[in-house]
């Protein structure tokens, strides 16, 4: 069964494990269709912290994605 993301009610951030490079939105996979947030330039540790901070207040997935572009 393939991952389709349509049943996800949680915010999921897609990030990379390599030391350098970015995870672009809708580049490798269709993030819009799957309901994922791309970490952009943040590594997975920093992405986890930023997502935790974003979830302290109510944000939409679009607002959270813009936070990842900002930081």
User: Percent of residues in beta strands?
Assistant: 5-15%
CATH topology: Rossmann fold
Q: Helix- and strand-based class?
A: mainly alpha
Number of strands: 2
Instruction: Look at the structure and give the mean pLDDT.
Output: 86
Radius of gyration: 12 Å
As a percent range, the share of helical residues equals 25-40%
Helix tally equals 3
Distance between the termini: 35 Å
| SSE order | EHEHH
Structure description:
The protein is mainly α. It has a single domain, classed as Rossmann fold (3-Layer(aba) Sandwich). The chain has three helices and two strands. The protein is globular. The N and C termini lie far apart (35 Å). The model has no long low-confidence stretch (mean pLDDT 86).
Q: Summary?
A:
With 71 residues, this protein is mainly alpha-helical. The model has no long low-confidence stretch (mean pLDDT 86).
Write the layout of secondary structure elements.
Layout: E1 12-14, H1 31-34, E2 36-38, H2 44-54, H3 61-70
Parallel strand pairs: 1-2
